[in-house]
Structure prediction request, 1317 residues.
Amino acid sequence: MDEMLLDSLSSGATAALADSLIAVKAATAEVKAAAEHSLFTANNVWMMLSTALVFIMHLGFAGVEAGFTQAKNTVNILFKNTLTPAIGLLTYALAGFALMYPGEFNGYLGFGGMLGVPEGGLDAGYASAGYTYWTDFLFQGMFAATAATIVSGAVAERIKISSYLIFTALFVGLAYPIIGSWKWGGGFLDELGFYDFAGSTLVHSVGGWGALAGIILLGPRIGKYRDGKVNDFPGSSVPLATIGVFLLWLGWFGFNGGSVLSADPGAVSLVLVTTSLAAAAGALGGVITANFMFDRLDLGMALNGILAGLVGITAGADLMSPWEAILIGFICGCVVVFSAVTLDKFKLDDCVGAVSVHLTCGILGTLFVGILGSKAGLGQFLDQLTGVAVSGVAAFTFAFGVFFLLKKLWGIRVSPEHEAKGLDSHEHGIRGYTITFDE
Amino acid sequence: MDEMLLDSLSSGATAALADSLIAVKAATAEVKAAAEHSLFTANNVWMMLSTALVFIMHLGFAGVEAGFTQAKNTVNILFKNTLTPAIGLLTYALAGFALMYPGEFNGYLGFGGMLGVPEGGLDAGYASAGYTYWTDFLFQGMFAATAATIVSGAVAERIKISSYLIFTALFVGLAYPIIGSWKWGGGFLDELGFYDFAGSTLVHSVGGWGALAGIILLGPRIGKYRDGKVNDFPGSSVPLATIGVFLLWLGWFGFNGGSVLSADPGAVSLVLVTTSLAAAAGALGGVITANFMFDRLDLGMALNGILAGLVGITAGADLMSPWEAILIGFICGCVVVFSAVTLDKFKLDDCVGAVSVHLTCGILGTLFVGILGSKAGLGQFLDQLTGVAVSGVAAFTFAFGVFFLLKKLWGIRVSPEHEAKGLDSHEHGIRGYTITFDE
Amino acid sequence: MDEMLLDSLSSGATAALADSLIAVKAATAEVKAAAEHSLFTANNVWMMLSTALVFIMHLGFAGVEAGFTQAKNTVNILFKNTLTPAIGLLTYALAGFALMYPGEFNGYLGFGGMLGVPEGGLDAGYASAGYTYWTDFLFQGMFAATAATIVSGAVAERIKISSYLIFTALFVGLAYPIIGSWKWGGGFLDELGFYDFAGSTLVHSVGGWGALAGIILLGPRIGKYRDGKVNDFPGSSVPLATIGVFLLWLGWFGFNGGSVLSADPGAVSLVLVTTSLAAAAGALGGVITANFMFDRLDLGMALNGILAGLVGITAGADLMSPWEAILIGFICGCVVVFSAVTLDKFKLDDCVGAVSVHLTCGILGTLFVGILGSKAGLGQFLDQLTGVAVSGVAAFTFAFGVFFLLKKLWGIRVSPEHEAKGLDSHEHGIRGYTITFDE
Prediction:
């Protein structure tokens, strides 16, 4: 080919040169498309991995909740936590996905139908963003179901499972995606300037408000507050709870890292660093605070401190320097201990500290976006306050309303006999552990 | 350089233009190679990740099997499940890999030697497909070992471990790869038009047939069927079984997602969506069916429903729309309950429901390829039936033969005393759990 | 555009051709940058995934250590293993990262300040290597913390937790990175020719020396060696230990696979194959050796055999053929059993076999680089010996010194009463398991 080109010169024809140039231009355009496809593929790999990591958070929640509650309710907890992602994904396919990223939208409410098939057919990958239509749905669907799981831990050991499952379907299918659309679907909170990178408010505090509504309407477990004292019911398995927290930390690599919505190397890896440092500092904050307050090396508060740090950094994980992330994580780790103690003062019985971790630190983390990092400023702080307040009112009202209706209709709490005996033997017919040996 | 080019024009030489064009063409070719290498790298990352995810399925199986069986046999189960991937990988390196993707092949049986070194040296990555020779081996090897693990759960609590290990080596090293080569190695079932995307038949039903052969020849555990009643032996740890199922769901991201054999964004992410929706619908199917039949919220059937949905979607995960996937998953979740009850009627004692999950739903899922999705049609349905029958006859015959020979040679079942006392104290000398406290 | 080009010819102007050529050259340069960015992105995705996998090794260690030790000390173990990565990451940000990959460096000691912000701003990805500054820090930080975790298991069940935490901060923050810099920071061991791909010596034997120093100074647990007999204290949960080992194997995909420092398809996938085959062969080696020595199917030695194989292959995972990897893994799996028995002869009480796994097999694996694989040779063998000796003297001296000082200052061992009662009730106020049912 190149020899032909040189030959053409001797015949004096520039036409040959021009033809050759046209061919090169076409080749360059093809290579450009190949390079873009390659980047798209790498981005989509990261987003699929993030999806898998967010999925495993459901096992993390199952571990934390089953580990920190009593052995007589283990199967019940696991049943709830197994069905939560299942129901969550199905309702998200049915309605949630299109409510959150709606076709027609007025900024407050929109809908685009059920999960469909993208243009170009079933396995078409559309390259307009860092990932395909399917990856988008699955990542967001796994995300959505976490909001319901947060509720599950708080209301454990006394809620009627039928009521919980109906609540979950409505919360994941309607409340979470509509509130989420106000920011992530481009709605009015987004217009306002509210910032929530990966959901300190839109996932964690929304779930936390649902949990708070639930424990208010349910009331505390029998014997939790007696004679002015707070009685701890020892959790069945501390190793299980620890596994849960480590899996949640791991899952947060995808929860926050995937929220970049591409594999952008600088942005994603910064997020992983701020996320992990906040978790590490949260562990220290929880341990130190608990040591001052309870005079013991409190593993529960080390674990909840990690979760507090993770929730706290989530709103601004892409905006903070490592040292700001450490500060945020440490403060959240301290605050989560005070929050747990305070809830107990009000006789709000949260079996696993879900409200303190997800609501208290979710709000705190959201506000930190106005205080630290590259968006800090009074205007931003006020926007953050607005976002926290608006989504809080909406989530709490919805959750309270649903639980209230369910309570009136057929009750949300099991009978005192069943609560005392444990939910497992009553509703599920098996025990969580059968560790006996004939000797 | 560009200035030189412009200068050359004033001297009237088109030769300089031609030289420059040649250089650009070379540069474009180089960039093209770079773009292709980049895509190859992204593809290979996905395949390595998928390999890791399939590996973790072995922990998932260990959890399900140890969790659902009695505490006195926990160490035995874990020993089997720890050695299964070890033996599986080694036999696959020795023979299986080259049996399954043979060099010389007549469509029925071929062999290409032991695992070797690819042309170009130890760390040469060959770019003819979406992944390297090494990734290919490791992904397929992890896959292969799962077929044996399926057997492990069914025959638990009474099989002699030596017999199990010999069976595993032969099953993974010979039966699985030879049957697999008929489709995935380009053999006669592939010629015929049989379709099995990721192995509802070639992995799951093959494993399931092995399990069925095992429990037929072993007979039920002592006391399982007494006075016309089916006695359940409570599993040692429901949390462990739940961890197992979640890890299997996670692992299926790689099992099905990796079976695309590249990171093709549209194709892989579609597969992840159909896989997860089938799992979710399977959970519902299992729970609803069990609630009708047993009048309890059966966590075991929620978990087995998830596995049933996953097995069922595996044959056509790349062909189904989300709603077809949900339908398949739901039906498999229902059917797995009936299957388990039916097996008990025939006094076929399967400790963890492996036959119902992997054989029944493996067959069902394979047939669905002829009923739903983009390949549906009578011709395809008949091809699917043929594939199911041929591989079933081969797998069952092989497994039955091996177990039968082992039974004749030195027995496959432990003594009744050891079975009653538990296999742990007899063969392993330790107990699975030692949870005691001096007070 | 192309038509314009052709038109220009009729006007006889080569100037238009030249302009067009200049544009194509610019486009090619742009596409080249895009292709490079795409490769960088894929590389960084792999490195972030590897980071996540190394993180999950901390849960693996927690599982192994809590599973293999007594139930009365479970919370204590989990507390240590939860704080280890937290403290590890924070000290690595404060000092370790810059000590290990120092700015100013004389080959023995250097420092570059605390973790900072890369040029170009917070989320700048720098493309000089296969990953960003942040990925670099986080991968290396997760790595660093594993060295301390190795110590944790050996000294369990009797060490004062305050002393352990101070030791960890100093070991991860100072000793590990300084010793590591001698090779991986380009220091004098690197100049010498010492080779350690992913840390058989620099991570595992360094951690193992720390463990050895600890158990020498602590002395054995009460009752471990009595009347000339070695008494085994049964571990609380064999399933938990098994989960731990599987997670460690999984994590090693990132530990070794990430040590390629890019997603280079051939190199990384070779490393995954050698790593997994060594683990598989290690399991066999451990089981066979233990069967000869103890006449039982020893799950503990299957699990430790896996770890031994993994540690052993780590130094040369990129240099070995599959069959060399199998040989190394098998030998390490055999040796780890002898090593454990030998330590007991010297009344060196290592609760989980950490010294045998990480020190013995770390040294062995490092020496294998001089015996097998593509670098084998007498010269290399001597370099390996030097590296083992130098880093061993440094690590042991440092660890012994710190533990010795702590022992003199306020003690490193709990009182005999607390040891007998268990560390959980004393220091942590809760029990690891509360599995009781009212019937």
